[in-house]
Amino acid sequence: MSARLGVCSWSLRPKSPRELADRVQSCGLRWVQLALDPIRRGDWSLDRTARALGRAGIGVASGMISMRGEDYTSLESIRETGGVRLDEFWDENAAAAVENARIAKELRVRLVTFHAGFLPHSGQELLRRLMIERLRTIHDAFAAQDVRVALETGQEDADTLMRALHDLDRPTLGVNFDPANMILYGMGDPHEALKQLAPHVAQVHLKDALPSAVADQWGTEVPLGKGDVDWARFFEVLHEHVGPVDCMIERESGDDRIEDVRIAATTAAEFLATS
Question: At residue 84, what are phi and psi to the nearest 5 degrees?
Fold first, then answer.
């Protein structure tokens, strides 16, 4: 299967399925990574979402879920609350995973991505084992519906994520590789990380960023091509070490998301055409 180029639904900030379909079309794209939680919560109807996207000729390439309790106010806050870490919301997040897996199956989505949270790099072995077990639980809930899951990069370096994948011992578990997150979180060179994680990469987020000049603070997300990702090198590594893989454009800041996504799509399409 050739690589599909699309956009993350949350990047376009739609208020309804119809608005999402219109905005994806305005970006000149035919594929979307769909946030599943609005459907699970009842904010969006599953049937209306499928119908609006289908009528517009837009396919759902993958899904995304988030965990209740995640606080992205600062690096410190997300370090303590990200992914499956919080005890307070674990039962609720585990139940949500089961429901999201059912929704993914109904939408015929074969891949769903999410952040594991800050897996401890060293020490805190009890916390690490707890998080690993929780990740297995989420993986298995989706596997029961024949849906693959992938962990998004950024909140840990490549070495830590590789170790976690080994310890999780779930052969179908993949990686959603986001080069900008490696920069935003200060977790290493994204191009070298892509080489290391290549055997596990199930999908790519196309996003760009500049590093922070201050330790332990966020970097800055910027339009694709304006940051520190070397896109020629990135796609060269992708082609050589990963092969055809879906690429979803993500834009999480800025006031003209559609135009930013359109430019990103043009750039990405040129690289994908020559790879």
Answer: -95, 15
